[in-house]
C-alpha cells in the first residue's frame, strides 16, 4: 500500500492508473455499497479501482493548564484502516479487477478531493438520514461532489442492485415526451405515478441545454454501459401571482422553447453517439422533485452542480442539495463552471 501524509495543496498523486475509479472506504455499510457499485462499473467500463482509506490522529489541546505532551500512537488506527482496505481489495480481486489501495492521514473529504485529481470517477456512499434531517448527507458525500476534480457518484443508503424499483406518485406531470419519433402532448394530466426509467441513465438538463457538461457525461456513461439515455427537462407553467398572467399563446411558446432545447440536445447527442438510444421528456413541475422521482427507477441519475468553490463549497447547487439526500439510485454529480 502507498502512503502520503501531505494531502493539502499538493499536485495530483502518482497512481498506477489515472483512469481508475476512486472509492472511499471506511468499513461502513455505506462504503461497502459504494464498493459494490464501483465493481460493477469497473467491469462494464474496463477500469481498475483505487481504494482510499483516510484517518486523522486525535489531538489534545490545553489552553489554561500545564500538562505534559503525550505522543499519540496511531499504530492501532492504521492497523484497523489497513485491515479494512485489505478486505475491500480482496473483494475487488475476486471480481478479477485490478486494484490499488492507498492509506492517507488527513480529513477523509480532503483526501478524496486530492485523489480525485488522478481518477476518472469517484464513488462514495451516503449516510444521509431520512426526513428533514436527511438534507444533511454527511461531510464526505456532500463535500466531495462540490470539490471533486472528476464526476462523483453518491450511492444512497439502502441501495442494492436488485432492489425493488417502483415509480412513485408525483406532482410533476410530463407535458411532452419523445420516443421512437413521436411527440405526445397532454396538458390536462393531473397528479400521476412517476414515469418508469428502468434500464436507463437519466440526466437532468437546465438552461445550458446541449452545452451542459452533465449531458455529455451522462451520454458517455450510457454509451459505455450500453443502455438508453433519457434526457429530462423541466418548465413551470403555474401562475404564482397576479403580476403577470400569461396567455395561452405565451404558455405554448414557453413549452415550445423548452422542447426545442431538448430536441437540440438529442440531435447533438446523436451526432457524437449515433448508436445511443436517446429519449427526452419535458415536465411541468419543480426540478428537484422531478429528478428525485426519476431516481425511483433509473439505473443512474446524472445532475450538474453550480456549487461555489472554497470552504463554502460544502454548498452544492440548490438542486443538487435538494436531490442528493433523497435520491433512490446512484447519482452522479458533474461540476459545472459558473
Automatic annotation (TrEMBL):
Source superkingdom: Bacteria
Xref: InterPro entries: Rossmann-like_a/b/a_fold, Universal_stress_UspA, UspA
Domain UspA positions: 20-156, 201-335
Signal peptide extent: none
Family (UniProt): Belongs to the universal stress protein A family.
Protein name listed in UniProt: Universal stress protein
Species the sequence originates in: Brevibacterium luteolum
